[in-house]
């Protein structure tokens, strides 16, 4: 292979086409995608509305200038639609290419705005692979391997109120996933999230939520923070927002975002961030979620998974909405069940910090019949290899 590999055992499944919840191989293989390209294809692959928005934009312009210099209607229109879904404290959208870049930008504006340097993140977090985002990964092996990373980052246990005293008047920001994804789908208590919000308010610390995996309907709300009855100060998005195109964003109050404008000017710039074709796709994707009432169906579909996935070898099923995780005992089981499922037409996976659990995150468009078929394959795999 002449493309770089990021593991010693990549799947190497060739995909020729993707449509709806299915991936197709060159020899006519058909796979149900229960991973959604890692929480990207929330509305399924190649949704016709997204494809036609992309084609329309292709006929107008592609890249025209670096982010922020010209007025580009697809960016403005998507930002307007996005802000309309959010509480009024969110006033300004910075569009990026990826999740990690949204994390980088968020850390920068938090430090500038508060004039503080310390950032607190959670153990077992994942926020991306650039060096800033990697500094927030709550996993020693990655810190050791890529040291030195950013200084003045501290870690607390996720969902542990006792650790919140680490947040002080010196803390610029607390950065948390609304639900920890790569830790194996850890849903925090409502009381914990409220206590984090309260402690941040008491200390003048900005609360930054990473909704890169949880956003855009995945958990049964457009954004997972809605489950907790609190509002973060900065929201980071990517993956599902582009409808299959590369796009990320961080969203903040205008006074916080404006710190990058001067002293020095151009405090955070990007050539391709908010690409007009990605923004056209993102606008269409948000419309699909709203028009097809996909969020309203999430809970019922999640319940069907829960009801069907009953097996003595399953230790626990964690999750919220269609962000789910089947806890088994060991990695061999997870590896073999995933392999069996793929050979039988169902793509599932595991988690970076939790290799003993299966990742289930199908497109929100999955039907009851497809859920039944997928669960039958997974259960058979667990029967044989669990
Ligand atoms: C919670 C979370 N944050 C950030 C990122 C980084 O996003 P990207 O891969 O687009 O840089 C990811 C990617 O998996 C993620 O799951």
Throw out a few tags for this protein.
386 residues; alpha/beta; Aspartate Aminotransferase, domain 1; Aspartate Aminotransferase, domain 2; 2 domains; four-stranded mixed beta sheet; 12 helices; 15 strands; 35% helix; globular; binds pyridoxal-5'-phosphate
List the helices and strands and how they pair.
Blueprint lengths: L16 E3 L2 E3 L5 E4 L2 H4 L8 H11 L14 H12 L7 E5 L2 H16 L3 E5 L8 H4 L5 H7 L6 E4 L14 E7 L12 H14 L2 E5 L23 E4 L10 E5 L1 H4 L18 H16 L2 H15 L7 E5 L2 E5 L3 H13 L2 E2 L1 E3 L2 E7 L7 H18 L1
Helix pairs in contact: 2-9, 3-9, 10-12, 11-12
The structure holds pyridoxal-5'-phosphate (PLP).
Question: What's this, in brief?
Answer:
With 386 residues, the protein is of the alpha/beta class. It contains twelve helices and 15 strands.
Give a written overview of the molecule:
- The chain is α/β, with parallel strands linked by helices and 386 residues long.
- The protein folds into 2 domains: 17-46 and 294-385, Aspartate Aminotransferase, domain 1; 49-290, Aspartate Aminotransferase, domain 2.
- The protein contains 12 helices and 15 strands.
- The chain has helices at 36-39, 48-58, 73-84, 99-114, 131-134, 140-146, 190-203, 254-257, 276-291, 294-308, 331-343, 368-385, and strands at residues 17-19, 22-24, 30-33, 92-96, 118-122, 153-156, 171-177, 206-210, 234-237, 248-252, 316-320, 323-327, 346-347, 349-351, 354-360.
- The strands form 3 sheets. A 7-stranded mixed β-sheet has the order 4-10-9-8-7-5-6, with helices on both faces.
- Strand 7 (171-177), helix 7 (190-203) and strand 8 form a beta-alpha-beta unit.
- Helix 3 runs parallel beside helix 9, helix 10 (294-308) runs parallel beside helix 12 (368-385) and helix 11 (331-343) crosses helix 12 (368-385).
- The longest helix is centred in the last third of the chain and has 18 residues, at 368-385.
- It is globular, with a radius of gyration of 21 Å.
- The mean pLDDT is 97.
- The structure holds pyridoxal-5'-phosphate.
- Pyridoxal-5'-phosphate (PLP) is lined by residues 38, 98-100, 103, 126-128, 177, 181, 210, 212-213, 238, 248.
């Amino acid at each position: 292979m002449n493309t770089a590999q990021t593991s010693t055992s990549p799947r190497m499944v060739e995909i020729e086409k993707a449509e709806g919840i299915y991936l197709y191989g060159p020899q006519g293989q058909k796979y149900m995608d229960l991973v959604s390209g890692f929480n990207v294809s929330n509305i399924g692959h190649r949704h016709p509305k997204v494809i036609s928005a992309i084609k329309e934009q292709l006929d107008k312009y592609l890249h025209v200038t670096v982010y922020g210099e010209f007025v580009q209607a697809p960016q403005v229109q998507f930002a307007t639609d996005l802000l309309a879904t959010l509480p009024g404290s969110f006033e300004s959208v910075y569009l990026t290419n990826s999740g990690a870049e949204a994390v980088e930008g968020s850390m920068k504006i938090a430090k500038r705005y508060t004039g503080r340097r310390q950032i607190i993140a959670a153990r077992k977090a994942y926020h991306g692979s650039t060096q800033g985002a990697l500094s927030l990964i709550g996993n020693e092996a990655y810190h050791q391997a890529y040291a030195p990373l950013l200084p003045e980052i501290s870690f607390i246990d996720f969902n542990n109120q006792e650790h919140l005293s680490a947040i002080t008047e010196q803390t610029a920001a607390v950065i948390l996933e609304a639900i920890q994804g790569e830790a194996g789908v850890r849903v925090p208590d409502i009381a914990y999230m409220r206590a984090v919000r309260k402690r941040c308010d008491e200390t003048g610390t900005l609360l930054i939520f990473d909704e890169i995996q949880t956003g855009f309907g995945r958990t049964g709300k457009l954004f997972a923070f809605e489950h907790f009855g609190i509002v973060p100060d900065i929201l980071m998005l990517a993956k599902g927002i582009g409808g299959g195109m590369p796009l990320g964003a961080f969203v903040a109050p205008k006074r916080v975002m404006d710190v990058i404008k001067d002293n020095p000017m151009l405090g955070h710039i990007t050539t391709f961030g908010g690409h007009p074709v990605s923004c056209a796709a993102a606008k269409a994707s948000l419309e699909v979620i709203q028009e097809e009432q996909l969020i309203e169906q999430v809970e019922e579909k999640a319940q069907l998974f829960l009801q069907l996935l009953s097996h003595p070898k399953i230790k626990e099923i964690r999750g919220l909405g269609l962000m789910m995780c089947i806890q088994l005992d060991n990695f061999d089981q997870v590896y073999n069940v995933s392999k069996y499922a793929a050979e039988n037409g169902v793509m599932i996976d595991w988690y970076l910090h939790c290799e003993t659990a299966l990742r289930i995150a199908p497109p929100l468009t999955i039907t009851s019949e497809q859920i039944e078929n997928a669960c039958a394959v997974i259960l058979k795999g667990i029967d044989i290899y669990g």
